[in-house]
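Below is a filled-in request sheet from our internal design queue. Each sheet records the structural input a requester submitted and the sequence that came back. We keep these sheets so that new team members can see what a complete request looks like end to end.

REQUESTER: design group, bay 2
PRIORITY: normal
MODE: inverse folding
CHAIN LENGTH: 441
BACKBONE (tokenized):
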């Protein structure tokens, strides 16, 4: 189809490039593979944007969606309720100890907005409206709506929209590979935590909440924080009586090797944001989950209620998919298997990818992987931007039957938890094939 007749404008896509590149038109998907209109198969190396959990066309989830579709397609949660939402609320809370209430939305960014509004209104309802700033680490990403972009990192995702945004208070992130203080040290120097400590010491009375992507800053380039980082942030929030919001939209549902990244360190945030994998990656649904302490601040008089709600929040078909996904988590050893697969992936990356001359850093937490490409491994100097190395690698990988998407010059791998051993080998070989096609500088 000629580009002027093509009807779509794709998200986060330069359409001029889209029309230059070979098009991948997905017709169906089975297991861990996407199948295009020509019948070619591609391993879904990024789990359809970090969402898919148990593979595509899973018969249990599909049957649950079909059964619910025949019964109740949609009914609002504004003032009335339905069984799939209640059941899913219970199932979620069973996996989120210390949390008491679930507020549904439709996508990750909206659920983040809900968390931010809850945090600010929590303090207002408790008579401290001056606590209304949000603290956030550098390079954060929480989605693309105005509030979510406001708490996102500076750069192309944010700068042009500046006039529309509010300003958060920022502290250092745990980007060890490029940290001025840690990069050359044998272990982390904790300067990022010190910067949060100093910020809270000076300004906690104006801060409603700290928001973090626990353990892995995904869109920043799969930046993995050291063990203990989430717990240390929790302790600082406790010390200065500031709410902790954990955005687990990317890290939730087994991707890090635990059900939720906060579980890795036994941390209970005041507000937990979930999305993407909540339905197994089949349908749009998200949730903002709170502790009783947060919920109670909204309970009582009419004016205390949360002024927020989306039309399709908690849609029953989406809830049915999510319940079915929990059935699989609970009846099969999904997390055990995912951890085994991530160990195998670590070995494959070390054996096949790590020594490549343009690979600077490989970061991994469970099945979330970032491979940072560089022009010089010694100095860690980036590759010239015009080479678009990340893109080149990912486009070439399609020749080897693997679909992946980069974040700049970081190659991202984030397969479904159901990924098979031979598929992991194929992914790594496709990455090497792509790396070998990047012109040398
Ligand atoms: N938070 C995080 C940590 C994310 O990674 C994302 C999406 N990649 C979002 C929020 C936004 O989710 P959605 O695209 O569903 O709005």
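RETURNED SEQUENCE:
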């Amino acid at each position: 189809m000629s580009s002027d007749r093509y009807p779509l404008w794709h998200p986060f896509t330069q359409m001029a490039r889209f029309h230059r590149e070979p098009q991948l038109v997905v017709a169906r998907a089975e297991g861990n593979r996407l199948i295009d209109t020509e019948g070619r198969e591609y391993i879904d190396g990024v789990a359809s944007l970090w969402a898919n959990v148990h593979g595509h066309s899973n018969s249990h989830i599909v049957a649950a969606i079909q059964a619910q579709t025949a019964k109740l397609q949609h009914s609002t949660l504004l003032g009335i309720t339905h069984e799939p939402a209640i059941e899913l609320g219970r199932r979620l809370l069973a996996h989120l100890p210390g949390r008491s209430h679930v507020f549904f939305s439709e996508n990750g960014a909206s659920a983040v907005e809900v968390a931010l509004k809850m945090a600010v209104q929590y303090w207002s309802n408790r008579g401290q409206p001056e606590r209304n700033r949000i603290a956030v680490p550098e390079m954060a990403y929480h989605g693309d709506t105005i509030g979510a972009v406001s708490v996102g990192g500076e750069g192309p995702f944010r700068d042009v929209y500046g006039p529309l945004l509010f300003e958060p208070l920022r502290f250092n992130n745990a980007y060890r590979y490029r940290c001025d203080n840690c990069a050359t040290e044998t272990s982390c120097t904790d300067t990022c935590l010190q910067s949060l400590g100093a910020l809270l010491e000076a300004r906690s009375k104006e801060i409603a909440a700290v928001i973090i992507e626990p353990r892995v800053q995904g869109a920043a380039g799969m930046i993995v924080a050291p063990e203990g980082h989430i717990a240390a942030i929790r302790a600082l929030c406790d010390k200065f009586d500031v709410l902790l919001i954990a955005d687990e939209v990317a890290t939730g549902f087994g991707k890090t090797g635990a059900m939720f990244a906060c579980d890795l360190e036994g941390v209970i945030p005041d507000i937990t944001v979930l999305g993407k994998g909540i339905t197994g990656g089949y349908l749009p649904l998200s949730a903002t989950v709170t502790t009783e302490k947060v919920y109670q601040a909204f309970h009582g008089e009419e004016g205390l209620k949360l002024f927020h709600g989306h039309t399709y929040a908690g849609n029953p078909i989406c809830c049915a998919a999510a319940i079915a996904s929990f059935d699989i988590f609970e009846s099969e050893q999904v997390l055990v298997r995912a951890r085994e697969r991530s160990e195998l992936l670590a070995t494959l990356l070390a054996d096949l990818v790590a020594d490549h001359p343009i690979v600077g850093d490989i970061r991994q937490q469970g099945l979330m992987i970032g491979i940072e490409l560089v022009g010089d491994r010694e100095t860690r100097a980036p590759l010239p931007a015009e080479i678009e190395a990340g893109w080149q690698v990912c486009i070439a990988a399609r020749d080897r039957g693997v679909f992946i998407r980069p974040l700049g010059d970081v190659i991202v791998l984030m397969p479904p938890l159901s990924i098979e051993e031979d598929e992991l080998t194929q992914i790594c070989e496709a990455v090497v094939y792509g790396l070998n096609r990047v012109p040398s500088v």
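SHEET NOTES:
- The first helix runs from residue 15 to 20.
- The pocket of 4'-deoxy-4'-aminopyridoxal-5'-phosphate is lined by residues 107-109, 112, 141-143, 213, 218-219, 247, 249-250, 275 (CB under 6 Å).
FILED BY: M.R.
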